[in-house]
Amino acid sequence: MRKHLLAALIIAGVGIFFLAWFLHATFSGKLVVDPFIFRIGRFRLKWYSTLIVSGLLLAYFIARKYFKSRGWKPEELDEALLLGVAFGIICARAYYVVFEWDYFKNNPSEIIKIWHGGIAIHGGILGAIFAVWLYTRKKRSFTFLEGLDVMTWVFPLAQAIGRWGNFFNHEAYGTPTNLPWKMFVPPAFRMPGYESFSYFHPTFLYESAWDLMVFVILTIFVKRHYEKPGQVTALYLVLYSMGRIMVEGLRTDSLWFGNIRVAQLFSAVAMFLGAIWYLMLVRKNETRGD
């Protein structure tokens, strides 16, 4: 047991050292990462898609283990996941297209070209929620709210990993800064109006760290305090939205609705609804206890 613990600590130490070196090299501009892992002819594998898939797979394995512990059918998780990914991608793209309609109305052929970029996480979340609802309309081993709680529990982990795809794409960064942890962005990837700046807020890292913290908090909650379906989802809406509102204020590539950042507006509404929902669930439990 001690040998395994020692090995784990050594591996963790080496991993942290490598990550610190990697971030220092890339943030300073000494090392510029390539968005592609490799290219063979027309086939290209991007870090972005690889990290998103990796995050989803890790979240899936955690959810599958939980399904087994609850006596639910794991094969139903597999089916729900496939449906969720399909609707998530479609809705994430549709959400982005709606708020960038001035461009897409003149370039309709670009709407389906998702490989050119342009998806929004809030649209993906809405699509996944709809998929869980649709899947649980028939009798399943888990209810809609139970399935939703599992999804919103493990999803922040997938988000935390997926955000690193933005880093390799040199996108989703913040405004210029001279803070010690400033991140170098190559000239070719700088947003219009920011061409003369070299260093920016690494907002991908801010959100990745926040998402990881949300996952840890929800994991503790599931193991120690989970009592009623809906509680985890309500907490996710509150916690994730808090972080997104703060990080979004630094972004240079936000979607806008008039003078309002769409992600901040969506997050504010989600945080309010999540807080009300959680308080209602707690009050119901207290009333039953009395």
Brief summary:
With 290 residues, this protein is mainly alpha-helical. The chain has nine helices and six strands, in the order H-E-E-H-H-H-H-H-E-E-H-H-E-E-H.
Q: Please give the largest β-sheet.
A: 2 strands, antiparallel
Which H/E pattern describes the elements?
Answer: HEEHHHHHEEHHEEH
The backbone outline, from C-alpha atoms, is globular
Helix content: 55-70%
Number of domains: 2
The low-confidence runs, each spanning 5 or more residues with pLDDT under 50, are none
Using the CA coordinates, give the radius of gyration.
Answer: 20 Å
Record field, number of beta strands: 6
Q: Counting H and I runs of at least 4 residues, what is the number of helices?
A: 9
Mean model confidence by pLDDT = 92
Strand order of the largest sheet: 1-2
Portion in strands:
5-15%
SS content category: mainly alpha
Report the span from N to C terminus: 46 Å
